[in-house]
Design brief:
single chain, mainly alpha, transmembrane helix, membrane
């Protein structure tokens, strides 16, 4: 039972790490997109 919990915790940690990396890269791209489009909108 303990081994199952450890494996589940490890898998959850890996999934959380991948999700966090994807979200961070997406936020960086979104912020860059806003910086590119904002001057055009203001003009």
């Amino acid at each position: 039972m303990t081994a199952t919990l450890v494996v589940m915790g490890f898998m959850f940690g890996v999934l959380a790490g991948i999700t966090g990396t994807v979200v961070l890269s997406y936020l960086k791209e979104y912020q860059h997109f806003n910086e590119v489009t904002r001057p055009q909108i203001n003009e």
